[in-house]
Amino acid sequence: MLDAQRTATSPGGAAVFEAWERFVRGEDQVPGVRPVVAISWHRCREQYRVDPHLTEAPVAAGGRDHGPEHDVVFAELGFRAASVAHEMGNLRGVVSVTDAAGRILGEWGDPATLTRATDFNLAPWFCWSECAAGTNGMGTALEAHGPVLISGAEHWCQAFHSWVSAGIAVRDVVTGEPIAGLNLSCWRNRLPPSAGGWLANAVAKTQRALKRRARDSGAELVAAYTQAGARSAAPLAAVDTAGKAVIADDTASVLMGVPAATPAIDATLRWTPGLPELITAARHASEQATRNPGWVGSTRIFTHLADEPTAISFRPVFSSAHLIGHLVSFGVAEGAQLPPSDAPRARPRRLVGLRDNRMVLLGLPEVSLAESDGNDVWLSTARGRLRAASPSLDKLDAELADAGFLRVHRRYVVNLGRVQEIERGPKGELSLVMADGPGEPVPVSRRNAPAVRRALNI
């Protein structure tokens, strides 16, 4: 739930403004600032380089960058936003719907506040992502999980310090990536205590429908995989439109670094291949197949346990005219050639952790493991246990895939260079004893055990 007491007029407002002034000048200590805000400020200053003296949001980039299936989400959120517009009008507030890029698609509420909002470009077809407009309710919600309230001086841009904004993202239930955002904004006025509950409830109803569709699409991909496997001896896998594995045979699972054969009981659960090139190719294949349903394509990538690139082909799978994923065949080259993925993968040089009101910059060798705990990610490091700046373990796993880190369990990503001991249980299960890790050994899930054995040569 949102903390409705943290507003532009709250007693802590002056302390937050003082911390903001110091942080803008280059200091790293942020006393009195909530972790979600401190981490956002760090992204704005170090990663996005947003001018804290920006006076209005920029115009959003043109073009359609979402699939037609997401139009249903926008329509659902628009309906829910319009239904609360009268209540927000009584609070002299506005309610907005954005896409995944922070572009406002629609806005409703108090006419006077809507007029004032145009002075800041808080209006349709302007961009309020963090990388465009700094810390704000809708932009920061797209980077974090759950409802996010940004009050007064918590906004990165000083021109927005008179606003209070609360946002929440609708996320793809498979990839975890944002699809859309819902936001409430007031000018120099408090949001009601019920704001957080209303946002969370609106998104939960929308995501239930997304989960049903994801479960159905997973089952259809498994069916397509089964039919194709009966006709071909080539190593085969089924991936969704984002490149995540739904099911793979024994050989394909080794090449991809994912569990083999049996899909999860919940078809919304997917596995991220340890092959960034495959993920990039799958997403490009999705773009091609969306434009041309008859498209089939191939490329060459490096796979696990191979010294030379391997040919892979993508054959799209559709359900009710909507693309739901691809069948990936290894050692097969057919159809159009995808562009080669020769660009070197950018590896993070350091991670950001948070201890109380201070951000800690960590070299990768200092990090023993990352652990998911609810909506938070924690780092076990040579400098103690720290909250990670990354909003999800999946995102951190993708960032560290080529940096000597490995996903060993749904809750753990470990630094292979910090594994000190390997324990075997009575039934052959594995656990890892980590340097600077938690007191207990880190469990290795049955599905991830083959990849761990290969990585550690055991």
From TrEMBL:
Location of the HTH LytTR-type domain: 351-458
This protein's UniProt keywords: DNA-binding
Pfam families, sorted: LytTR (PF04397)
GO MF entries: DNA binding; phosphorelay response regulator activity
Protein name, entry field: LytTR family transcriptional regulator DNA-binding domain-containing protein
Protein source organism: Amycolatopsis iheyensis
